[in-house]
Design brief:
Strand content of chain A: 35-45%
Helix content of chain A: 10-25%
Strand content of chain B: under 5%
Number of helices of chain B: 32
Largest sheet of chain B: 2 strands, antiparallel
Oligomer: heterodimer
Number of strands of chain A: 20
Number of strands of chain B: 6
Number of helices of chain A: 8
Strand order of the largest sheet of chain A: 6-7-8-3-9-10
Shape of chain A: elongated
Distance between the termini of chain A: 48 Å
Shape of chain B: globular
Chain lengths: 354, 750
């Protein structure tokens, strides 16, 4: 199967449903052959974005380009885009083979050729031997793969996934997401993937677009988003974060010297000026040390400790507020009430806006 | 392969040649230049005109009418078909393409209709036109194939134009379907009803007379209340209302009782009770009245027995309000039963269980939880019974005696000695006002108040058993009633085998022979029975109407469930409206509207088919909505993203999944067409007599034997149709159900 991957470009695209603004002048570009995830809480506009790419909705304003073509007014039927639905939407009255061949059939491909192509598609997802079955005779994971095969055989220039894993259980989810990622990379597809699961997004994406309130909150590689969240929303949505008050003492060459409750750090200034500021601290970047108060660093008291097998979660009350801490050292668990000193690791601390 | 291959692109290939437009244009031109413009006198399906199509003034197409036969006013319709040629090679996205199509479609349609209404059998139809243009030398008859095709082409050009402007994601099929249904409903529901309104304001010489209208509207024969305390007949409107309230109350209570037995008791013969729900479907309503005459009429079994045993002189006591009420209760209780089963089942058992864990006993649970939850449903059943009773025509006709109601009043105003169209129209307006108010009440007030919980989650609770005393009440009302229903049907089946009911109980096959005899003559099989003619045309008309009704209903349901468009609510209201229009009103309105050009349909089979289509359409719509709401919308979307057009999606995905609903809608419209009487009785003609009107005719002549024999044959035919279909579809449905889960909701985690 060849790849005809194309780019996707949104130029200040808006979408209204009556009074409701579902998407507010959103612009972004997706490079051909990459997998980009739309991530966000429900109602943020991520599914609307996907449906706009598919042509299941037409924009109320702005322009959508797929490759070089302006597709803003083109309905789904005429777009070279296919989609894997959350419910899979397999046609229950057709066999697996007929399902996969459906798109070929309606575009007028001959009977023999479409059977070959459909079987090739099923081969790709490892289900060729299930071709004669009905969808109802497959397991959830198999149905999911049929849906992928059905979308693949048309060799779309863009492939869309609408929360494709949400109906699978946790173990299967991990496996299938890897399969999807492998397939996408093997075939060099442009793929847009909607999810509200941040771990899934980090695992499969080349880039992630985090959405909030019908607009883009931040866009970047998984690492950028995790390590340098633009604001508390992103920091909190991708992984967990403690928001802590700090003060910027000086800014030099876009490096800021920051005082976080007595701990001093050099952090990227991200355009902030000296004065009061906020930093987001990942829970695993807070280091707890049992024992008495030591120097200028903040200290506090363990309020709760929860054992979770691979790590321990603490809630610590200190001068900075109530902090959420993840500690991988499960052997010596600190009992509630223990006085602790707090330090920061070299990563996972960043200045955030607002 | 690219998805944008020419196989499916919906006529919208940029810069290409718009095939859809070309097709409709060709059709329009065929209508304008080839097919006869005017209706063929010999009937819609006669083709004697073919030989003389271009020579005869009656058969010529519009083009020749204009050039050879001096009817130049037809020319502009052709102009509307000429304009779109200018843009046929343009892109769909070109604004000119859209505007030109919209303009030429709208103008062509409007002009064709206007000239049709303006120039009738007697030249100008309106006085102001005569004043403006002088006397008109020519005249024209009803529209035929040609005009029909030109109108259709204009309508679809208009729709294509709207679609090209981006309405409904630029989907030509959907916009076209919406336009088609709006046009049909406008032509065959709103237009006839508006004719009634107009004719109510006219005197018998077609002059407008407002004073006369108000005189008729406020007449004491309609609203008179002197009957209270005096022995004068009440106003006909009060008669109708009283009857409707009584019937609605009794049917609702019985329906509730039956439903409670079926879903909240351990009654053994539940399945037998459920059979009752099929009865009103297969029984022409007046047959119940007929059977009541056999039991309680002057020579009825019960009356005769009372005379023999107690010396009570036989009288016509059953004729009038008690008889009609009794018959309607028997006829419509099963409908209320059907509604109430849904309502009672809709009360979630877990609510009742919750009440019980809060220490309510079963009586308290029923009165404080179950009953309040059912209240909107009960009100719904009441309004339904109210509408059915007002609209009922057969029972009041057969059993009414001196007790006149609106529906029969309308009939007698038209066919009786008075022949007062104005009075019929006024009565129709009053009746329509009643049923429409009930309909509006049902939709606006109850529409938002349904507590029935359909979550899709399996409700695991067990319904609480009825309290003891309620069980006694329920059993003691419902079961005797069920027994009575059985007796009534037995009477109908048996009555046809008796020489003269009440006088000569010799068993005979004479009535069946009179109705359905067949003899072998010199020309082969001869259908000598008196009923064959009407039976044949009934089956034919019903068989033609059924697929049309079902497709109309399902298409409407598809648009309502699957598409979002401006004015969707008004669209839904318009398509459901004909449910609230009593058959007699439809009948009168069709006569008024389609007796004269441009749509001359009275006396044809077409008008019967049309009346069935639009009378039964709401039922098809409801069935379609119910079935389609069960199909996950992402199935459609998956098909669209895979490159199928809406039309292909409907054909390949939705229709196959809806097969059970389609069959149900087909059967239903077929059976309803077989049993309808109220509208039909106005529209039948010598050539197209219908079974029901034939039977009523026999009843009016006192020829009960033949009427009953015929009615029981009808019932048996319909029972076998319904059973056959249940047998075929019932099994399919099981197979499908497995599939639905797979497509809709993903399987549970492995």
């Amino acid at each position: 199967m060849r790849s005809r991957a194309a780019s996707v470009r949104f130029d200040s695209v808006s979408k209204r449903f009556g009074e409701v603004l579902a998407l507010n002048e959103v612009s972004f570009e997706i490079e051909p052959g990459t997998l980009v995830t739309q991530l966000g809480p429900s109602g943020c506009g991520k599914t609307t974005t996907l449906r706009l790419i598919a042509g299941l909705e037409l924009p109320s304003g702005g322009a959508i380009h797929i490759g070089e073509q302006d597709v803003s007014t083109l309905p789904a039927t005429s777009r070279d885009v296919t989609m894997v639905f959350q419910s899979y939407a397999l046609f229950p009255h057709m066999s697996v083979l007929d399902n996969v061949a459906y798109g070929l059939r309606v575009s007028g491909v001959g009977r023999e050729e479409r059977k070959d192509l459909a079987l090739q598609g099923l081969e790709l997802v490892g289900l060729a031997d299930l071709a004669p079955r009905l969808p109802s005779e497959l397991s959830g994971g198999q149905q999911q793969r049929v849906a992928v095969a059905r979308a693949l055989v048309l060799e779309p220039s863009v492939l869309l996934f609408d929360e494709p894993l949400s109906n699978l259980d946790a173990k299967l989810r991990r496996q299938v997401r890897q399969e999807i990622r492998d397939l996408q990379q093997k075939l060099g597809l442009t793929a847009v993937y909607v999810t509200h699961d941040q771990e899934e997004a980090l695992a499969v994406s080349d880039r992630i677009i985090v959405m909030r309130n019908a607009a883009i909150a931040q866009e970047g590689s998984p690492r950028e988003l995790y390590e340098e969240p633009a604001d508390l929303f992103v920091a909190d949505f991708i992984g967990d974060a403690n928001l802590v008050e700090a003060s910027i003492e000086a800014v030099n060459d876009d490096r800021a010297r920051v005082d976080i409750g007595g701990i001093r750090r050099e952090l990227p200034a991200r355009g902030l000026a000296p004065g009061p500021a906020h930093v987001a601290i990942r829970p695993e970047s807070l280091l707890l040390r049992a024992g008495p108060h030591d120097g200028d660093t903040p200290s506090g008291t363990v309020r709760e400790a929860t054992y979770l097998g691979s790590h321990i979660e603490y809630n610590v009350q200190c001068d900075l507020g109530l902090l959420f801490v993840v500690d991988p050292r499960v052997d010596d668990m600190l009992a509630p009430g223990t006085r602790v000193g707090i330090d920061l690791a070299g990563h996972g601390v960043s200045l955030v806006h607002g | 392969m690219a998805k944008a291959s020419p196989g499916h692109a919906a006529g919208g290939v940029p810069g290409g040649f718009d095939r859809h437009l070309a097709w409709w244009l060709a059709l329009g031109w065929a209508g304008f230049a080839v097919l006869p413009w005017y209706a063929i006198e010999d009937g819609f399906w006669s083709f004697g005109w073919v030989a003389e199509a271009f020579a005869d003034r009656d058969y010529a197409p519009a083009l020749l009418q204009w050039l050879d036969f001096e009817r130049p006013w037809l020319a502009p319709a052709g102009l509307a078909l000429l304009l779109p040629l200018a843009v046929i090679r343009r892109r769909r996205t070109d604004p000119l393409f859209a505007w030109l199509l919209i303009a030429s479609g709208a103008l062509g349609l409007a002009y064709t209709l206007l000239q049709g209404f303006a120039i009738g059998i007697a030249g100008w139809e309106f006085e102001f036109l005569t004043r403006a243009f002088g006397e008109f030398g020519d005249r024209q008859f009803g529209m035929g194939y040609g005009a029909l095709l030109v109108c259709a082409a204009c309508l679809f050009m208009f729709a294509q134009g709207i679609a090209a402007r981006g309405a409904i994601n630029g989907d030509g099929f959907v916009v076209g379907a919406i336009a088609l249904i709006i046009a049909l409903v406008a032509a065959f529901v709103f237009f006839p009803i508006s004719r009634i309104l107009i004719s109510a304001f006219q005197d018998n010489n077609y002059q407008y007379d407002l004073a006369l209208f108000f005189e008729k509207l406020t007449s004491s024969s309609i609203w008179g209340l002197r009957c209270v305390g005096e022995s004068v007949a009440c106003g006909i409107a009060w008669n109708s209302l009283l009857l409707a309230v009584l019937t609605a109350t009794s049917t609702t209570l019985l329906g509730l009782a039956f439903a409670l037995i079926v879903s909240r008791t351990g009654f053994r013969a539940k399945r037998l009770l459920r059979v009752m729900t099929v009865l009103p479907l297969i029984t022409p309503p007046f047959v119940i009245g007929l059977s009541i005459i056999l039991l309680f009429g002057v020579s009825g079994t019960v009356t005769q027995f009372l005379d023999w045993a107690f010396g009570i002189t036989p009288t016509r006591y059953v004729y009038g309000l008690p008889g009609v009420w009794f018959a309607q209760t028997l006829a419509f209780a099963p409908i209320a039963f059907l509604v109430m089963i849904g309502v009672v089942d809709g009360v979630s058992p877990s609510m009742e269980e919750a009440a019980q864990t809060l220490r309510a006993d079963s009586w308290r649970t029923f009165t404080s939880v179950s009953l309040p939850l059912m209240r909107p449903g009960i009100a719904n059943a009441f309004l339904l019974g109210f509408i059915e009773s007002l609209a009922d025509f057969g029972n009041p006709l057969v059993l009414g005696g001196d007790y006149d109601v609106l529906s029969t009043g309308i009939f007698f105003a038209i066919v009786g000695a008075q022949h007062d169209q104005g009075r019929a129209a006024v009565l129709a307006i009053v009746l329509l006002a009643f049923t429409l108010s009930a309909f509006l009440l049902q939709r606006l007030w109850l529409g938002r108040k349904s507590y029935a919980t359909v979550t899709g989650k399996g409700d695991s609770g067990v319904p609480v058993a009825l309290p003891r005393r309620l069980q006694v009440v329920v059993y003691s009302t419902a079961l005797p009633w069920a027994a009575l229903t059985a007796v009534i049907y037995a009477m109908i089946l048996f009555g046809g085998f008796v020489e003269v009911w009440g006088l000569d109980h010799t068993l005979t096959l004479r009535h069946y022979a009179d109705a359905f005899s067949v003899s072998v003559g010199s020309e082969g099989l001869l259908w000598t029975g008196a009923a064959w003619n009407s039976f044949g045309s009934t089956v034919t008309i019903a068989a033609i109407a059924a697929p049309l009704t079902a497709s109309l209903g399902l298409l409407t349901a598809y648009l309502l469930v699957r598409q979002r468009f401006a004015g969707r609510d008004a669209f839904e209201f318009g398509t459901m409206l004909s449910f609230a229009i009593p058959g007699t009103v439809i009948g009168v309105s069709y006569i008024l509207a389609f007796n004269v050009p441009p749509l001359e349909l009275t006396g044809t089979g077409v008008i019967l088919v049309l009346s069935f289509m639009f009378r039964n359409m709401p039922v098809g719509v409801r069935a379609g909505i119910a079935a389609m709401s069960q199909l996950d919308k992402s199935l459609d979307e998956a098909s669209l993203t895979l490159g199928a057009s809406s039309l292909t999606t409907v054909r390949r995905v939705i229709l196959p999944l809806l097969r059970p609903a389609i069959v149900a809608a087909l059967v239903f419209s077929f059976v309803r067409a077989m049993t309808a009487i109220s509208a039909v009785i106005f529209l039948v003609s010598a050539e197209y007599d219908m079974a029901t009107s034939y039977i009523i005719g026999r009843v009016e002549n006192g020829d009960y034997g033949l009427a009953i024999a015929y009615a029981s044959v009808l019932i048996l035919v319909m029972v076998s149709v319904v059973m056959l279909v249940q047998l075929v579809v019932g099994e399919r449905q099981l197979g499908r159900r497995r599939g639905e889960h797979a497509g809709g909701v993903a399987a549970a985690p492995a």
